[in-house]
Amino acid sequence: MNDISVKISALREQLGKKLCILGHHYQSAAVIQHCDMTGDSLELARQIESIEAQYLVFCGVYFMGEAAALLTRAEQQVFLPEPHADCMMALMASGCHVRNVLLELQAMDQDVLPIAYVNTSVGLKAQVGTFGGAVCTSANAKEVLNWALTSGKKVLFLPDKHLARNTAQALGLGPDDWQILRLSGDGLLDKAKDLTSKRLFIWPGCCPIHSQMRVQDVQAMRLKYPGCAIYVHPECPPELVRACEGAGSTSFLIKEAQRLADEQSVKDLIIGTESNLVTRLALRHKDALRLLPLKEAYCPDMNAITEEKLLILLQNIERGTAKALALEEAERQPAKAALARMLTICR
Ligand code: SF4
Q1: Which atom of ligand 1 approaches the CA of 300 most closely?
Q2: Does 52 share its domain with 159?
Q3: From CA 252, how far away is CA 254, in angstroms rounded?
Q4: What is the whole-number distance in angstroms between the Cα of residue 178 and the centre of ligand 1?
Q5: Which ligand 1 atom minimizes the distance to the CA of 160?
């Protein structure tokens, strides 16, 4: 244990039951070792309401802290070790822009229900809640999109165009059923475009970390490791997903790695997602199989959270000087409604 780890452990002990540290799976091993709870977005969201601690420290990017703050009780506070770490994909869709697009679609006689991936701001989730829509995660995107598609309305899925198409394809939809929207700075670019034949409108955002993975990476791995199994996250492009043995959320990838390690049915398992998670899985299953990243892919924002920053935050919490994450009151209720709808759909 280094000096910082020792100090963090001492502060955790001192703060005792008042403190709960949550960590997303994409956090580094140095940070994860200090977390009381780890998980992907859905797993962590599900656990928030059962947490009794007064101080919740969220080791993850900004939208994750905001989502946690939506689900906590009034007497609880949420803190982020690095409040400037934000998800690049979340920044590709603002609440204001989405509202304008939804109003423009309505003006074009398109009755649309919005579905927002959890990787979005509270401001955007609030707009989605106001328009009757729901949040989804990569673990439940299929269930939530199916709910929306069977509502009788059209659907706007945002902001991830890859997750949208991968999920729609899994539900039997094809390119004729959807339209990736072209956007202006504050609304729609293609106002005159005939959208009547489309069931699904897709926001043109993506995760730069998962988007950089290519079919060529899969082909290179198959040449190098014949017989390997390749699994990727559904934020990867659809043509890449189709070239792999499977795709799914972070929790799905963790479970598949465990299954393949238990069965020992493959010698080499290749996983295409954030590299911190792949490195941890490789270590966990090193005796059963060789587990490799499809491509080195570290999210700079997830990696902006360090042990040093965690220590500074805990010291400030202990002194009473840490700044808790604050939500706009006007956004809280509609955003919470969109999140609650997801939890109800996927109960
Ligand atoms: S890996 Fe992609 S989706 Fe996840 S926080 Fe980073 S930019 Fe956002």
Answers
A1: 6
A2: no
A3: 5
A4: 24
A5: 3
Task: Tell me: do 174 and 266 sit in the same domain.
Answer: no
Residues 254 and 317 in one domain: no
Gap between the Cα atoms of 312 and 307, Å rounded: 9
Q: Residues 176-204: pLDDT tens digits? A: 999 999 999 999 997 767 788 899 999 99
Structural domain that includes position 253? 213-293
Locate 339 and state its tokens.
């999140």
Q: Are residues 341 and 257 in the same domain?
A: no
For residue 211, the CA-to-ligand 1 centroid distance in Å is 10
Q: How far is the CA of 301 from the centre of ligand 1 (A)?
A: 8
Q: Ligand 1 atom 2: the closest Cα is on which residue?
A: 207
| Same domain? 132 vs 225 | no
Long-range CB contacts for residues 44-52, cutoff 8 Å, separation at least 24: 44/68, 45/71, 45/118, 45/137, 45/339, 45/343, 46/343, 47/22, 48/72, 51/20, 51/76, 52/17
In this structure, the chain runs to a length of 347
Tell me how far the alpha carbon of residue 134 lies from the centroid of ligand 1, in angstroms: 20
Closest CA to 20 of 317, 327, 303, 343: 317
> Is there a single domain that holds both residue 118 and residue 200?
yes
CATH number of 315's domain: 3.40.50.10800
pLDDT per position as a tens digit, 87-146: 999 999 999 999 999 999 999 989 999 999 999 999 999 999 999 999 999 999 999 999
* Domain match, 148 and 182 both: yes
C-alpha closest to that of 127 among 135, 119, 137: 135
- DSSP secondary structure letter of residue 282: H
Q: Which residues of the chain have pLDDT under 50?
A: none
> Do residues 105 and 186 share a domain?
yes
Which protein residues are within 6 Å of ligand 1, measured from CB?
61, 87-89, 119, 207-209, 274, 299, 301-302
Cα(209) to ligand 1 centroid in Å equals 6
Q: How many domains, in total, are found in the chain?
A: 3
Q: Whole-model pTM above 0.90? A: yes
- Strand order across the beta sheet in which 268-272 lies: 246-247, 229-232, 268-272, 290-293
Residue whose CA is closest, atom 6 of ligand 1?
299
CB atoms within 10 A of CB 58: 26
